[in-house]
Amino acid sequence: MITLYDYELSGNCYKLRLLMSFLGIDHKTVPIDFYPGREHKSEWFLKLNPLGQLPVIEDDGLILRDAQAILVYLASKYDPSGKWYPRDNPALLGEISQWLAFADGITATASAARLHDALFYDFDIDAARAGAHRLFRILDEHLWFGEQQGRDWICSAAHPTIADIACFPYIMLSEEGGIPRQDYPAIRRWCDRVKRIKGFIVMSGVFPAGPARAAA
Amino acid sequence: MAKCSDTVILNLWHPVGAIAEAAPGAVQETVLLEERLSFQVGVDGEPVVWRSRPDARGADQVPAADRLPARGAYGYVWTSLGSPPADLFPIPEYAEPDRRRLNAATFGVNVSAPRAIENFLDMGHFPYVHTDILGAEPHTEVKEYDVEISVDRDEILATRCRFFQPMASTASDGGADVDYVYRVPHPYCSVLYKSSPVDESRRDVIAIFLQPLDQEHVRAHLLLCVLDENSEDKVIKRFQQTIFGQDKPILENQFPKRLPLDPRAETPIRADKSAIAYRRWLSQKGVTYGVIPAAA
Fold first, then answer.
1. What is the domain extent for residue B54?
2. With an 8 Å Cβ cutoff, are B245 and A207 in contact?
3. Which residues of B touch A118 (CB under 8 A)?
4. How high is the ipTM of this complex?
5. Which of B79, B103, B136 is the endpoint of a domain?
6. What are the pLDDT digits (tens) for B53-71?
7. Which segment of the chain is annotated as a signal peptide (chain A) (predicted)?
């Protein structure tokens, strides 16, 4: 069985819990005392991931780090529909990779702002917030133009991909870093669509969609 | 925003950090009531707290006259910017040797301290915010409970609180009706007692100690003092962090951020009895910091 080294309040760990829930895969959780215990910097954990970061998974003897890399792995191996990471569609794979990198940018800005405000990390808070707003503006426009063309998701497909999962958590948690989403209506509509995907689960700080419409 | 001039608040003991997370001898920087403070816990466990200054890199460079009142209690360093009482409110259970005593976490929260206390006292949100942990539909009723302001102890006491909880703690093995007692022994601190799943005759103790950074921002220190022989520390902490992480967006979206004390400012329902008593108690004490005082 897949083992996930996990911290409840981590948006990057949540990405994997979310995909595994969408795919209906069981997994085992090893809780890591990220805060206040800093267990991800402990000697035993650094042997698992020398970068000292969550998440990490172990599956069939394979140890893998980095939320985006693990999304690629899990979707490639465990999604029989081939939709979350369509391996036979080069253009779509390129798009997905582009937005996975964008998700890393969201982590570096919106997640950093949240770590600063909630867990007292010594980051430049103004730079983190400004950086997040710049990325949110770009994504909001991209989603808005997509909606005009009948596209509901980040990439050019009629279904969500791992790019949607990778971008979702730290956008949803952005207010905890002092980054409101009022000015990004297309992002808010997209967040609501993500919450209505069958199998959606929450984490602390993320609430389910209202009952206005049945889940797809 | 002006620095605090509320003498009731200035004269209280306030928590500034968990002793377990303060490496012995290392200086920690923090903020209390808009003032920058430094503190250090000695190898003997004794804390020293002072107003931060560039010429003092450690407690040994701070003359006794420049040190603030300081004490260690319940696993935290406490200090005061005024003249604090001789004693801090009691939590006798903390001394019981078979309890697990942990700082679940210290979180920065964009909320006023009184709003955070009110949320801590509220049972009505359990099924909606802590779904399938501290509550679940259709068990949404807050049953009648008792509230008193204890004159001799100068604290609020809510008793006979009962709520159905699917998973009351890490030691639970299923849903149960859980008994609660709430104390508010300090304007910015509250102590909760809830039925222990492992011992019918005793209660788990969970406390929230709020360190006001300013009127609308706190550091929330979460103390656990629970009966659980089996779970690892990090599992017990994770449970409480999960709960608090669910409360956080609710707290941060309260408006107005400061707690209005005018009884007509917000419309309470029967379930808010403890909150009504809390607001009245703050008014009677003359607290002005972190609240919107009632018009005279």
1. 7-79
2. no
3. 107-109, 248
4. 0.93
5. B79
6. 998 889 999 999 999 999 9
7. none
